[in-house]
Amino acid sequence: MRAADGTPLRVSLARSLRRQKLRALLLVAPLLLFVLVTFVAPIGDMLLRSVQNGIVPDTLPRTVAALAADPADPPGEAAFQALLTDLSLAEARKLHTQLGSRLNYESPGFSSLIRGTGRSLEDMAEAAVAPVAAQFPPLAEGAAWAAWMDASLATPEARRAAGLAPDARGLREALPRAADAWDAWSAFARGQGDDPAAEDVPPFVVAALLADLQGTGADALSIRGLWSMGQPVLTDPPFGPFDPFAGGTLDLRAAFVAEDEAWGDPATWATIRAYSGRYTAGYYVNAVDLQLTPDGIERRAPDDRIYLLLFARTFVMSLLITGVCILLGYPVAWLLANLPARTANLLMILVLLPFWTSLLVRTSAWKVLLQQQGVVNDILVWLGLVGDQDRLLLINNQLGTVIAMTHILLPFMILPLYSVMKGILPSYLRAAKSLGANDWTAFWRVYFPQTIPGIGAGSILCFILAIGYYITPELVGGTRGVFISNRIAYHISDSLNWGLAAALSTILLAAVLLLYWLYDRFVGIDNVKLGG
Question: Residue 501, Cα to own-chain centre: how many angstroms?
Answer without folding.
Answer: 5
